[in-house]
Amino acid sequence: xxxxxxxxxxxxxPRWSILIIDLIIxxxxxxxxxxxRFNFKDIPAEDLKNLPYDYxxxxxxxxxxxxxxxxxxxxxxxxxxxxxxxxxxxxISGSIxxxxxxxxxxxxxxxxxxxxxxVIIIDCLVTLFLMxxxxxxxxxxxxxxxxxGKEKMNxxxxxxxxxxxxxxxxxxxDAAIKYKVVGFIDDDKDKxxxxxxxxxxxxPEKLPELIRESEIEFVIISIxxxxxxxxxxxxxxxxxxxxRVLNVPPVTKWINGELSFNQMRSVNIEDLLxxxxxxxxxxxxxxxxxxxxxxxxxxxxxxxxxLARQCSRFKPAKIYLLDQAESPLHDLELxxxxxxxxxxxxxxxxxxxxxxxxxxxxxxxxPQIVFHxxxxxxxxxxxxxxxxxxxxxxxxxxxxxxxxxxxxxERFVFVSTDKAVNPTNVMGASKRIAEIYIQSLGKKTxxxxxxxxxxxxxxxxxxVIPRFKKxxxxxxxxxxxxxxxxxxxxxxxxxxxxxxxxxxxxxxxxIFLFNMGKSVKIVDLxxxxxxxxxxxxxxxxxxxxxGLRPGEKLFEELLADAENTLPTHHPQILIGKVRExxxxxxxxxxxxxxxxxxxxxxxxxxxxxKDLVPEYISNNSVFQKLD
Length: 627
What we know:
Layout (H helix, E strand, L loop, with lengths): L1 H9 L4 H23 L7 H5 L1 H19 L11 H29 L7 H30 L6 E6 L3 H12 L5 E7 L9 E2 L2 E4 L4 H8 L1 E6 L6 H13 L3 E4 L17 E2 L2 H5 L8 H8 L3 E5 L4 H11 L5 E6 L2 H14 L5 E5 L5 H11 L3 E4 L6 H6 L1 H21 L4 E5 L10 H16 L6 E6 L2 E3 L5 H10 L4 E3 L5 E2 L1 E3 H14 L5 E4 L5 E2 H11 L10 E3 L18 E4 L5 E5 L5 H13 L6 H11 L15
Helix pairs in contact: 2-4, 2-6, 4-5, 5-6, 11-19, 12-19, 14-16, 16-17, 17-21, 17-22, 21-22
């Protein structure tokens, strides 16, 4: 019997058989309509003699309308709301046509209705009900047979809006899914205790109770613009109860406008660290960038590439994407050719340390705005290679800034780092020296030299989150330098938007600081990533501590102790008041520092850096003996 039942569902019924079944429903509906109209008593003789004509007329109209609209061609077990809407329109149209013929027979031919009007109305309603409900019943039986209730996993959908309803229908529709929606969660008081498609809506405070009582396997967040704070709150409740959390993607990413279960993704750590979208002064930025020639150094990097994308929104005359990394630059070129076809751009392979090459770049392309993001940024690597940090972070910045001055560039924006504050490592000190040079040079030129300073960006090359993901995928352990280490985090788009905003408001000489929010304990970050992966610390994967790396801080800073800040019109951007230097003095010291590269004497190079940046105190480094 089971095999026979399974065989029945394995094949689609022939289309002609569905048409015949629909016509049989129409015959039954008309018959029932006559009985209802006359209260199941004898049908009057006048109406009785017209019955053959009534059935013929109605069946011809129904058959023609079904054939024309192809209602019988759909696969019944996959009936959708669109199919139901088509049936509704076809049946209503057919009944209206029958009523129109009735009017013709009344006034022009017979002098009376061939079919009583009440019968037409009742027949229309019964036909609609039977045709739609029979399809839905077959669909429900099919899905229940494929996924018996005892095999299903219970699911809660967070959000009872349109996206939530679509999510529920997606789970109902997909035969490969064995999930049962047991409830909606929504904080809209107008929706509470109401039922949507047979599923009740509960308040957020009921989430823990529902998870425990209903043995929930997944919570699916369907709300499109849910704040990171709320998403964290939901995720914490779910993870504490060993429940996974899924995200419904934005509508723009639905395939052909339809959502499928396979498009739903687990909430990742980047979603939980995001902050509310920032507001930027688009008009002011547009005035600065529109129809301008823009040069971006380090364009293949995380920040440089995002700066290029953000600048493209403001219709510059042309963007030059400069980097010495060939493959990443090629990837960026392919992206621009696909997504930014209306933007004029050109990729330039060049090394900012090569003054002759950079001189040719400036003289040939004549940029008006320069975003200088090219730099070495990895602390341990620069600690072991101080001369290279000088060559790239100091000489590269000096070359680019000097050429900006010589070529009368309007604005030069230097992308710095929070590690330049009270530096404890070579990388941070090299960036601080570059800041000092940029700020002092700005006093001698009409070019507006602007520095932006911020912390770690989520998902950037070499950052901790991609590293943790790889370690989790490989089975661990997750390695952390110290149990108390903390870091500030900001998304790449957010950091890039703030850089552009600061560039537009800067008058020259400022060091703009970004509000990085609260610092995050790295071990807490790792533990949450483990739980988001459905694993358990100590059972499925371990966390091990390796000790602070050379030059690494426990806590990052955005301002030195002796500094203070001034507000700007943007709540997330401050101006740091730092000690100022005279260009002549700084230039001589930096020239000597650059020349020290040729000696390849690391201690000599680092000592010169400490002389220029007295707050540079090495930490966990071989250079501590120089302090």
